[in-house]
Every structure is written in structure tokens, then in C-alpha cells.
Amino acid sequence: MTQLIGEFECKLDAKGRMVLPAVLKRQMPHVERDGLVVNRGFEKHLVFYPREEWDLMTAKLAKLNQFDPKVRAFVRAFTRGATELTLDAAGRVLLPKSLLEFAGITTELVLACQFNKIEVWSKEGYDDLMGDGGVEDISSLAAEVMGDINFGI
């Protein structure tokens, strides 16, 4: 499983292309050959998946009960707008206009790595989401989310 690390500020050019940071390309050795898949995130953002991670995710979705209307609705929403991205010779990807509009991305964006995927936010949206990131807020959230997990420490 891919383990991506980092947070990167990027810019779109006039054609909606973004240069994938070299650090990320090194973390995804097959990205130039296999490309990425982009889809809508759960909030107002996009998500990049290395192709092999997208294939793993969709294989899991394919195992869900397709007779359940909630499963069908979720799969439909999750895959809506999903698009394969190929890096050009300059290391850029062209982001679909409809997805950029969905995420409110115009020029400046933030790539936020999360384990096997990369969230793609408008800079303004990401700054609003993260707020001050006060120590108390993060501490409370960690206690609530992680408090019952025994890490064997």
C-alpha cells in the first residue's frame, strides 16, 4: 500500500493544469506510467488516487451488495466524475473543469497527503477547514477519535 507524506501548495495554469510536485512523484514510482485517478471528495474537495490504489478501492466497492439501494447510491456518488489523469512531458496533469468547479478551485490549491491518497483543496477552502489548528482542538479530537485504540505502547 502506498504511504504518501506531505502538504504542498500548487497553482493551476490558465488551462487547468497543475505540476505534480517532484517529491510526490518520487513517492509514487509508477505514477508516470500508470497515472492517477481523481474524483470528488466527501467535502468540497477532490481526491487523487495512484492508479493501483484506485483499483484496490473499486475492487472493495464491487464486493458490496449491489442489490442494496444505499450501496448503489454510494457507489454512484463516489465514482461520479472520476477521471483518469496522465502526466504530460512536463509532469503536469489536466484537471477536469467540472471537478474544479465542484471543489471551488480556481488558481491556488493545496495537496494534502493522507496515507494512500491525496486530498486536493482550494487554498482558501483548506485554510478555512484547518483554521488555527489550536493545540487544544487537536488534543480533544485525538482523544475522541483515538482514545480507545491500544497501540501496544
- The CATH class turns out to be Alpha Beta
Order of adjacent strands in the largest pleated sheet: 1-7-8-4-3-5
Strand fraction band?
15-25%
Rough shape?
globular
Query: Roughly how many Å is the radius of gyration?
Result: 17 Å
Question: What does the largest sheet look like?
Answer: 6 strands, antiparallel
Q: Could you give the order of the helices and strands? A: EEHHEEHHEEHEEHH
The number of distinct helices, counting runs of at least 4 residues, comes to: 7
Note down, in words, how this protein is organized.
Forms oligomers. Pfam families: MraZ. Keywords: Cytoplasm, DNA-binding, Repeat, Transcription, Transcription regulation. InterPro entries: MraZ (IPR003444), MraZ_C (IPR035644), MraZ_dom (IPR020603), MraZ_N (IPR035642), MraZ_sf (IPR038619), SpoVT-AbrB_dom (IPR007159), SpoVT-AbrB_sf (IPR037914). This protein is an alpha+beta fold and 153 residues long. It has one domain (7-146): 3-Layer(aba) Sandwich (Chemotaxis protein chec), CATH 3.40.1550.20. The protein contains 7 helices and 8 strands, in the order E-E-H-H-E-E-H-H-E-E-H-E-E-H-H. The protein has helices spanning 22-27, 31-34, 51-62, 69-79, 97-103, 123-130, 135-146; strands spanning 7-11, 17-19, 36-40, 46-50, 83-85, 92-94, 108-114, 117-122. The strands form 2 sheets. Strands 1-7-8-4-3-5 form a 6-stranded antiparallel beta sheet. The protein has a two-stranded antiparallel ribbon with strand order 2-6. Strand 7 (108-114) and strand 8 (117-122) form a beta hairpin. The mean pLDDT is 93.
